């Protein structure tokens, strides 16, 4: 167990063979709402959205997805999901996944948006630490629980060439 705690996961393009594991994690992470199914994840990949996985010893321990629309300077990105196995939360896995998504958004010079439960203080703090700000509220956004969500926004990072 000690080796697992000190080994950093690899963030790689999500493998289609891991979609079942994503759906399993969704059931654990979001039981009071509408967890995504295997077909929902497959549809995201089929639509060409950017998905990454966090792998530890070849096992998927987290996943994240991003959609990008438009072109610079008006491109927008939306974080569709970030999920981390509860056994690996609090170890920087979510941050690594978020950084991978933001790197992709920044490559496209996209302003990035996301929704987060208003009661998820840890996630809100992580997003704020990565340059997001709360810009709105969506009442009863999560179903069937009826939980509210903050809408958060982050501008694209300045590139060195932008000078």
From TrEMBL:
Matches recorded under SUPFAM superfamilies: Acyl-CoA N-acyltransferases (Nat)
Gene3D superfamilies in alphabetical order: 3.40.630.30
Domain N-acetyltransferase: 9-157
Pfam family, one: Acetyltransf_1
Domain of life, per lineage: Bacteria
Keywords from the named record: Acyltransferase, Cytoplasm, Transferase
Keyword presence, Acyltransferase: yes
GO molecular function, one term: N-acetyltransferase activity
Record flagged with keyword Phosphoprotein: no
CDD domains reported for this sequence: NAT_SF
Family membership noted in the UniProt record: Belongs to the acetyltransferase family. RimI subfamily.
NCBIfam families: rimI (TIGR01575)
Record protein name field: Ribosomal-protein-alanine N-acetyltransferase
Organism (species): Saccharopolyspora elongata
Gene name of the record: rimI
């Amino acid at each position: 167990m000690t080796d697992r705690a000190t080994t950093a996961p690899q963030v790689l393009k999500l493998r289609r063979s891991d979609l079942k594991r994503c759906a399993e994690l969704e059931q654990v992470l979001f039981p009071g709402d509408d967890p995504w199914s295997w077909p929902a994840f497959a549809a995201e990949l089929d639509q060409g959205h950017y998905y990454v996985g966090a792998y530890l010893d070849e096992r998927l321990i987290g996943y994240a997805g991003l959609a990008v629309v438009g072109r610079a300077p008006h491109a927008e990105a939306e974080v569709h999901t970030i999920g981390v196995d509860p056994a690996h939360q609090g170890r920087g896995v979510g941050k690594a996944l978020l950084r991978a998504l933001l790197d992709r958004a920044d490559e496209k010079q996209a302003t990035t948006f996301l929704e987060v439960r208003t009661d998820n203080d840890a996630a809100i703090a992580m997003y704020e630490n990565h340059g997001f700000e709360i810009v709105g509220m969506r009442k009863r956004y999560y179903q069937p629980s009826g939980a509210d969500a903050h809408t958060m926004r982050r501008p694209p990072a300045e590139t060195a060439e932008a000078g």
